[in-house]
Amino acid sequence: MAKIFKDSKGQSWRLALNVGSLRSIKDQLGIDLLNQPGDMPTELSGIVDCLWVALFDQIQAREMTEKDFAQCLDGDVLAVAVDDFMAELAAFFLKIQPSKSMAIKGIWEKTKDLEKMQQEAVTAMLGSVSIDLQE
Q1: What single string gives the DSSP state of each residue in 52-109?
Q2: pLDDT category, 22, cuts 50, 70, 90?
Q3: Lowest CB count within 10 Å: 2, 43, 69, 79, which one?
């Protein structure tokens, strides 16, 4: 089932992963998510590249440039889009390789948990830092 998210300009994007979109990601980015979904990039630029390829037909239909598309992805939108991408990747494998689907979901949930713990640690550390702003 496709996921729909809105960008920072209110435009809706339909994210549906299928063999065609996963092959396009492999052909254009060299990331073989069809056979090796664990190779999903963890850095934001790689994730945005995967979104770009997966949404390319819609981007092209809207006559958007890469810059136009990137400007629609603020942090909040990107968080939703990445969650949707990972949910779609897990859903793709659900019927054909359920264990792979469960692994993708589990790894993504653990990744988000680790990010949250890191955020909490940084917040706690910064809470104990005092800065004297003398004029």
Answers
A1: HHHTHHHHHHTT--HHHHHHT--HHHHHHHHHHHHHHHHHHHHTT-HHHHHHHHHHHH
A2: very high
A3: 43
